[in-house]
Amino acid sequence: MTFISPRRHRPRLLNALLAAGAMMTATAAMPGAGHAATNSSFTPAQRQEIVDIMRNALKTDPTILSDAIAALRNSANAAQQNAARNALDSHRADLLTPAATDAILGNATGHTTVVEFYDPRCPYCRKVLPDLDRLVKEDGDLRIVEKVIPVLGQSSLIASQALVAAFVQGGQAAYFRMQTAIMNDSVTPTADRMRTLATQSGLNAGMLASDMNSARVTSILQANMELARAIGLDGTPTFVFNARQIIPGAVSYDDLKKAIAQSR
């Protein structure tokens, strides 16, 4: 089998593509052809010649297509990154100033702020918890602001309501006790199951069950969801570092630590 060197043949193929472009330009420049070119009304023979040139170029050097796809992908990634930066700039205050109802790991007045959007039913969110605890123990100037968002269905909603209701009932301490219970529980969340976990966590189960559907809990979860949508969140967990960088999905301890250092 004979392999064609893309590097050696690229100039000839590019010339073919340029010739196609030149032919289209020349056609458009012909007297009286302006209106026809605007409407893409090349003659059938011209269109066929252009198609043949392109097809032959792709057959001879398939890397042309892969290069084009890579260019489109890079362009899309750049646009996505620009949109993310704009979103972070627009919501910088919301991301750097914890709400009164936000649970905070580490130093509540720390100068480095990491916001975590998480779903209590997300296995990756559960897996990363020990790493978050380790990070705040090692870094005295770090605070991790936790914003619970129910994105995985009804079970997530019930668990999220219970977490926020625990905060409403007893603040940070109650929240983290309930979080430990929920995030380590393998039983599908139901209202009755949340009452059981609340009792095991030393909370008033009846009050928690009542607060779960309250206007206050609903408004807290809605605010979290609105902020998540505003920054373009597309999965959990998602981490935002000092309102400068977004990292979605499962992240290792080393990657988290590196992103924290880069955000300072």
From TrEMBL:
Keyword Protease attributed: no
Keyword Signal assigned: yes
Family matches, as Pfam families: DSBA (PF01323)
Thioredoxin domain location: 72-264
PROSITE patterns: THIOREDOXIN_2
Keywords annotated in UniProt: Disulfide bond, Oxidoreductase, Redox-active center, Signal
Cross-referenced InterPro entries: DSBA-like_thioredoxin_dom, Thioredoxin-like_sf, Thioredoxin_domain
Transmembrane domains' residue ranges: none
Signal sequence, start to end: 1-28
Name of this chain's protein: Thioredoxin domain-containing protein
Native source species: Komagataeibacter intermedius NRIC 0521
